[in-house]
Amino acid sequence: MDLLNKNMTKNEERPIKVVQFGEGNFLRAFVDYMIDITNEKGMFGGDIVLIKPIEFGTMDRYHAQDCRYTVSLRGIDNGEAKVQNRIITSVKDIVGAYEEYEKYNDLAKLESLRFVVSNTTEAGIVYDENDKFELCPPNTFPGKLTKFLFTRYEHFNGDMTKGLVMLPVELIDDNGMHLKECVLKQCANWNLPKEFVNWVNEACVFTQTLVDRIVTGYPRDMAEELWNEWGYKDEICVTAEPFALWVIESDKDISEELPLDKAGLPVIFTKDHHPYKQRKVRILNGAHTSFVLAGFLAGNDIVLECMNNKLIRSFIENTVYNEIIPTLTLPEEECKEFAKAVFSRFDNPYVKHALLSISLNSVSKWKARCMPSFLGYIEKFNKVPEHLCFSIASLCVFYTGSEIRDKALIGHRDGAEYNILDDAAVLDFFKNESGKDAKEFAHAVLSNEKFWDQDLSKLDGVEEAVVKYLSEIRSEGMKATLEKYFA
């Protein structure tokens, strides 16, 4: 069976419009997938060059397949499990920033280049005063980008029409703003000309983005089965869910240059991405965090099992529709449609999302994802949100343990051990407090201002509700308590 290559696909000659820092699964199944569809519809007319921005790793598999690869979307569509396959033909090349520095640097001189996409992980957008302009390339991503932009600025003699549009998708707050700040700091650190700084500020666009798609990566366990189905080998294929959302905030309108939305793709251009981020964090992530600990203690191991459990599914849906959505700023119907899509994603039979994986750092996650809804509900309705109070009690029970081993607090479910993973200080707190009676334990958790930046025990009715649920779970078990209060 032959490897996938360009001789097996339709090929069009297109100018390079995009350089992409990062060749990982997410970008290839999200950004490159969308650009490929827009090219197919004749609405973009540009190709992508992938940049390998780190020293280690190999590009051999990409070159062997002429940068052709398959994206296989697997999930629920109108209530049915479906698979959609697409061979991506819009990636022209892959270049190593270290191995092929001159070739990489020359990309900055391309007349056709317009967009810079990046996904260098949350730790990638960082300013380092010790980074050096003389390095080929500089160490950090902001350093690499600053020098790349300076190369372009010099090559085109400061032409204000040759600026680039930055599209960072790193999962940090205000990613574009933060990236620009790092670039400007690097300009100052390297004493680059004021005229160049003005060009960065005026000619270039740093967008802020929100991205959403579960990318499950290379299907190692069924690759040969898929190759037999497709009729070719593909060693860089990538699987993902069908759902996707890309929200792009920009001071300058770039939607005509990047008409992804006009190609029918789930892309929103906006002047403020924050309401969409609030919706995603509070509904998608908040739903996860509010039920996974209770779901695990009730005997389930993956999200899909929870969704197939009528009682737990009802708990999740009531949490989202009755306690989270009423506190959001976007229109209620938009939020309900988003929630409907979220539940469809949770129902995806192709995604085995482990509850223990989601449970990592649950205290800080609850603060970021659930507490705004919790406080918003109390403020709006002047009563406690029972489902979210129950999720705090579930957190207390899940974090119950008396032994820390290999940096994990050891919990127990039906006699079997499980690892509770969080910051050392959090684990020490629960090791010392979780053996106390329900009232003392609940008060210690709720009043811990290091967890919540405030004393939640002072909110009317909250401590009483948490103590009630905590006592019942301890004495009757998670399943029986869920049935008693939420069936």
Largest sheet: 6 strands, parallel
Order of strands, main sheet, comes to 5-2-1-6-7-8
Structural class: alpha/beta
Query: Average pLDDT across residues?
Result: 97
Task: Please give the number of β-strands.
Answer: 16
What is the CA-atom radius of gyration, in angstroms? 25 Å
Can you give the helix content as a percent range? Answer: 40-55%
Number of helices: 20
Q: Which percent range describes the beta-strand content?
A: 15-25%
Provide the low-confidence segments as ranges. Answer: none
Explain this structure.
The chain is α/β, with parallel strands linked by helices and 487 residues long. The protein is 45% helix and 16% strand. The chain is built from 20 helices and 16 strands. It has helices at residues 25-29, 31-40, 60-64, 101-106, 141-155, 175-189, 194-203, 223-230, 274-297, 303-307, 310-324, 332-346, 355-358, 362-381, 386-398, 424-433, 438-446, 449-452, 462-476, 478-486; strands at 16-21, 47-52, 69-77, 80-88, 91-96, 115-118, 165-168, 205-206, 208-212, 215-217, 238-240, 245-249, 267-270, 404-405, 408-413, 416-420. A 6-stranded parallel beta sheet has the order 5-2-1-6-7-8. Strands 4-3-11-10 form a 4-stranded mixed beta sheet. α15 (386-398) crosses α19, α17 packs across α19 (462-476) and α19 (462-476) crosses α20 (478-486). The longest helix is centred in the middle third of the chain and has 24 residues, at 274-297. The protein is globular and about 70 Å long. The mean pLDDT is 97.
